[in-house]
Known about the structure:
Blueprint: H1 2-32, H2 36-52, H3 54-70, H4 75-81, H5 85-99, E1 108-113, E2 119-126, E3 129-134, H6 139-150, E4 154-158, H7 164-180, E5 188-190, H8 197-203, E6 211-215, H9 218-227, E7 240-244, H10 250-262, E8 271-277, H11 282-294, E9 298-301, H12 303-309, E10 315-316, E11 330-336, H13 338-349, E12 354-358, H14 362-371, E13 376-379, E14 398-400, E15 408-410, E16 416-423
Helix pairs in contact: 1-8, 2-5, 2-7, 3-7, 5-6, 10-11
Amino acid sequence: MTDHHDSAARAAERNEVLAKARAAKAVAARLATLPTPVKNELLVDAARALIQRTDEILEANAADVAAGRAAGMSESLADRLALDASRVEGIASGLRQVAGLSDPVGEVLQGRTMDNGIRMRQVRVPIGVMGMVYEARPNVTVDAFGLALKSGNVALLRGSKSARVSNAKLVDILQDVADAHGLPREIVQLLPCETHESVQDLITARGLVDVVIPRGSARLINAVVENATVPAIETGTGNCHFYIDAEADLDAAIAMLLNGKTRRPSVCNATETALVDAALPAADIVRVVEALQEAAVTVHGDVDTLGALGATDIVPAQEHDWAEEYLSMDIALAVVDGVGGAIEHIARWSTGHTEAIASRNAFTLQRFADEVDAAAVMLNASTAFTDGEQYGMGAEIGISTQKLHARGPMALPELTSTKWILEGAGQVRP
């Protein structure tokens, strides 16, 4: 009986995902041609509705937080999940910001008139149906909607079970605003999240879903990228390195390292590994270690190597530490043989997100920039600067660590494709 019930529930879940994907596909053409002023007005009205209905949002969110804590959720996860009035205002502010950004749809990237008189141009167009798989934070629900709408895409959102009630309320509010504008509620939909299989249903819905973007832990991203038959854009696992060269300004290097590690340890652009040039004096290497420890960062490294230099309280590093995205006040630290050693270490362990160097040698900086393979390379700057807003791109859907279509912060232009339009007057090809 239980097996039959489970299989029936599973079939119902799959049918719901596919039905919503078909509904999204059906409204994609209408959304793709929506004028910019209409999109902007809808975004501003959605921001206003979120503020007006803050009490409803907080009530829904309180249910999620209470359920999470009852199930043993850690306080750090509960904090990521929790909303208050100021956080709702921040989410609404994000929509207003997107409304103020330039609309990429219709932008002419290049064009010319062919010798036979045909006028050709390449223009930006929406991708279509955008699937988003993400974890805990309810703000991603609204961020994804806002960026999808402005770039002319329909949003299919598969949030986590832990934020189910919050996400349902947020999407209901967004759909009400769409309805008030005479637009289909299906321009944004929330997918079921009772089982992990609903993710698989989304990422294999070829012909209905045009792209899927995972945002969250390395485990989530890998599961999506490895199992998707729909095109997937890999985002954001960040094992970011910071290399301190023997010719660095040590005070500035330490300040950049601490900023990258301690500013917000839980984000993907946080520094997770420090690489220190073996040519530095032992006292300077110890200074780097102690500066981290004084900032309450736990240093994982080779105890014998660092101990021989005079460093203490080192946690013995295991093989997995060099690949770790800690997202906490921990850092792996290795002594390497100059910039060449740093580049070799990064090549082995990098996730291709952000890699940084501190040096005053122009040739060393150039070599690092040329040879390190990552979405962002920072020369004498903190890893924390890999961010769409910092780049002047406005809001972002995530940081792409792949090499096709989009790489680095994914803002509005990266959520579009292109179309070639050729306009003739009856020409035929000889």
